Amino acid sequence: MNSLVRRPLGQTGLAVTPVGLGLAALGRPAYITLGRAEDLGDDRDIAAMRSRTWAVLDAAWAAGVRYLDTARSYGRAEEFLAGWLREREIAPGTVTIGSKWGYAYVGDWRLDAERHEVKELTADRLRVQLEQTRALLGEHLSLYQIHSATVESGVLDDEDVLDRLRALRAEGVAIGLSTSGPRQADTIDRAIGAGLFDTVQSTWNLLERSAGEALARAHEAGLGVIVKEGVANGRLTARAAPAALLAAARERDTTPDALALAAVLARPWAGVVLSGAVSAGQLRDNLGAVETGWDPELEERLAGLAETQESYWSERGALPWS
């Protein structure tokens, strides 16, 4: 049953649902989410991961999810998504799809790869990866984002990159960027000032709240806000959640991940929060956020979970690929 209502994503003209599906954990065998051995087992060959991706996409579609988020670096995620769209005969525009450029997947489908992805925010990388994305997603591509832009990377000052993005925007594709690291707020403010970007995708969760004020400014400026890592790569799920979150979830007859995502949806600037589910069951739990209430008592009670951004990103950086 379709339980989600579509709403505008900033001033992009695109429609999204409050919860979207991110494919970072589905398109490649290894990722930094806690508990992947339990969630996925040992069978992670390409056929098995494609089947799993399609099953989660089917569950998301049936539930009414209408924002899907992928990237060139998510292994075969774009390929899996393209095959699903074709097989299910999903018409362009029926679901809003965002992808990203800037990282390349180099893990060779190995769990023990020395490196899984390599970052390069150059005009040449943009040109090559945009061609690859369009070859797979074609007219389904609604939003194209710089992957993990930072002020220090220089990408926001690269006129060749910015000119190529302006040209793509003139063709009707919305332009965005994702942010990462302890200086997310600086990057968001630079993006607002650039006058080019339609969306920003940032990490915000009960542990890492430092980008909140900047995201409010982005929303006020008309940018659509996409929130990633709402359950902190598994740290806010039942397998690792702090005791205070577990207790609050039990009292409200919900799951800790649903309550964590409900905290995101309670922010007036949040357009869509991404689920990183790798099974229909995880997705169902995540979607519970839409019906889960959030109130001042919870806000005060769980405020103490917040970490400094330096501490949060240091711990995130230490998470193993598994």
Write the topology of this structure.
Layout: E1 7-8, E2 15-16, E3 19-22, H1 36-40, H2 46-63, E4 67-69, H3 77-87, E5 96-101, E6 103-105, E7 117-119, H4 123-137, E8 141-149, H5 159-170, E9 174-179, H6 184-194, E10 199-203, H7 212-220, E11 224-228, H8 243-251, H9 256-265, E12 272-275, H10 280-287, H11 296-301, H12 309-317
Parallel strand pairs: 3-4, 3-12, 4-5, 5-8, 8-9, 9-10, 10-11, 11-12
Antiparallel strand pairs: 1-2, 6-7
Helix pairs in contact: 2-3, 6-7, 8-9
Strand content: 15-25%
Number of discrete domains: 1
Rg value = 18 Å
CATH classification, class level: Alpha Beta
Shape summary: globular
Our count of helices gives 12
Span of the ends, CA to CA:
34 Å
**Biggest β-sheet, characterized?**
8 strands, parallel, barrel
SSE-based structural type:
alpha/beta
Total number of β-strand segments? 12
Q: What is the CATH superfamily?
A: NADP-dependent oxidoreductase domain
SSE succession: EEEHHEHEEEHEHEHEHEHHEHHH
> What percentage of residues falls in helices of 4 or more residues?
25-40%
Arithmetic mean pLDDT:
97
The CATH architecture: Alpha-Beta Barrel
Q: Which strands sit side by side, in order, in the main sheet?
A: 3-4-5-8-9-10-11-12
Question: And the CATH topology?
Answer: TIM Barrel
Low-pLDDT regions: none
Descriptive report:
- The chain is of the alpha/beta class and 322 residues long.
- The chain has a single domain, classed as Alpha-Beta Barrel (TIM Barrel), CATH 3.20.20.
- Helices cover 38% and strands 16% of the residues.
- The protein has 12 helices and 12 strands.
- The strands form 3 sheets. An 8-stranded parallel β-barrel has the order 3-4-5-8-9-10-11-12, surrounded by 6 helices. A two-stranded antiparallel sheet has the order 1-2. The protein has a two-stranded antiparallel ribbon with strand order 6-7.
- Helix 3 links the parallel strand 4 and strand 5.
- Helix 2 crosses helix 3, helix 6 runs parallel beside helix 7 and helix 8 crosses helix 9.
- The two termini are 34 Å apart.
- InterPro entries: AKR2_Oxidoreductase, NAD(P)_OxRdtase_dom_sf, NADP_OxRdtase_dom.
